[in-house]
Write a structure and sequence with these properties.
Blueprint (H helix, E strand, L loop, with lengths): L1 H15 L1 H21 L4 E9 L7 H4 L13 H11 L2 H10 L2 H5 L8 H12 E5 L5 E7 L2 H59 L4 H30 L6 H22 L10 H40 L5 E5 L12 H25 L5 H7 L1
Helix pairs in contact: 2-12, 4-8, 5-8, 8-11, 9-10
Length: about 375
């Protein structure tokens, strides 16, 4: 019974204040309608994109030197990297300068806080966030729907450019390192070639295989001839009927072949004559230099090929993001929601006046002057 009486009192109070509540709600209605009609319409353009995998710029993967499966989409880290680039000052400055946002927003660029104001205004309309499908959504809001779409697409392209530049910067540093390394190896290769040429000239060796076979053949032939002429001389010297000229001829040939053998075995350093000892001394040194020269030339060839692969990747236009949806001029405004503003204003006014009426009726018998005087 007491609860019913209380409810009845509330109804009575509201009934007594019905005109005030009605008038205030109508006033809120007209005022909110008037204010919302003065508000400008804003249009939101949206572009959606995914990051590409940085491994696409890997020369091994690009030229098929690895058996790994190509993954075209980037990871969450790549998504965060693009989001960080999207919020960078470089992107903001690009948008501000390209689309003349100082003039567009009516901000004095020469003012001390002009940059702060235009950035603050830009960030109010420019948003980058990850959606439920793990893609990046870039939105821009402006009174001009066409301008909103242009800025959204331009910002996305700038993000792609910056991400590509960061990737190419690392490739550029790698190319510079390869260039220095190839230059050093080329100089080393030239030094080895000079050393090899000097040793070959010093020992008179230009083809180790051919000259070794020639010297071995000459030495073997000299040994055979010495044995043959000695045997003939021993036999003919015992025969008194052999002419002395014949014996002299045989002795001369024997001495010639002995001198040839001695010359081939000589240890004297004579660049004009290639001996067995000089050949044995030169062959290991020449073989070592030839092997070093071959290895250096092989490594340089590999570095040149690797350099060309990195250079081809560097010159290739590998996108840093994959566009799912390009921004288009929105046909419908994004704000203000005039009906919601009016409805919320009227409801807010209604609840506030009802509360005020109840409070005023509950404390209407209180003598506020006495209460305040006691305080």
């Amino acid at each position: 019974m007491e609860h019913r009486d209380s409810l009845i009192e509330v109804v009575r109070t509201l009934y007594r204040w019905r005109k005030s509540i009605r008038n205030l709600c109508l006033a809120a209605l007209f005022i909110s309608v008037g204010i919302t009609l003065l508000l400008d319409n804003y249009y939101e353009a949206k572009t959606v994109f995914y990051p590409t995998s940085p491994r696409l710029a890997n020369p091994e993967l690009l030229f098929g030197y690895t058996g790994q499966v190509t993954d075209y989409f980037g990871s969450d880290h790549d998504l965060d990297r693009l989001a960080e680039i999207a919020r960078s000052r470089e992107v903001e400055n690009y948008i501000i300068e390209r689309f003349h946002l100082y003039e567009h927003y009516g901000i004095d660029s020469s003012a001390r806080d002009g940059m702060h104001k235009v950035r603050k205004r830009l960030r109010k309309h420019y948003q980058v966030q990850k959606n439920k499908n793990d893609a990046l959504e870039l939105t821009f809001e402006d009174k001009d729907p066409r301008l909103a779409a242009e800025i959204a697409n331009a910002a996305r392209d700038k993000i792609n450019e910056i991400a590509q530049r960061l990737s190419k910067e690392s490739q550029r540093q790698l190319l510079a390192a390869y260039e220095n390394n190839m230059k050093r190896k080329q100089q080393e290769l030239e030094r080895l070639a000079d050393s090899l040429r000097h040793i070959q000239e010093f020992y008179g060796i230009y083809d180790v295989g051919t000259q070794s076979a020639q010297i071995a053949g000459q030495l073997s032939q000299a040994e055979i001839e010495i044995i043959r002429y000695r045997a003939r001389l021993e036999v003919l010297e015992k025969d008194p009927n052999v002419p002395r000229d014949t014996l002299a001829y045989i002795r001369a040939n024997l001495r010639a072949f002995e001198q040839q053998r001695q010359q081939l075995r000589s240890r004297e350093s004579n660049a004009e004559v290639l001996t067995v000892d000089r050949l044995n001394e030169a062959v290991p040194r020449i073989a070592t230099l030839q092997d070093m020269h071959y290895q250096a030339r092989k490594q340089l060839t590999y570095d040149i090929e690797r350099y060309n692969q990195i250079l081809s990747t560097y010159l290739s236009d590998i996108p840093a993001l994959l566009v799912v949806e390009a921004a288009e001029p929105p046909p419908v405004k994004s704000r203000p929601k005039r009906s919601l503003i009016v409805l919320s204003s009227v409801l807010g006014t209604f609840f506030f006046t009802v509360l005020a009426a109840l409070v005023a009726d509950a404390y209407r018998e209180v003598r506020w002057r006495e209460v305040l005087a006691d305080v």
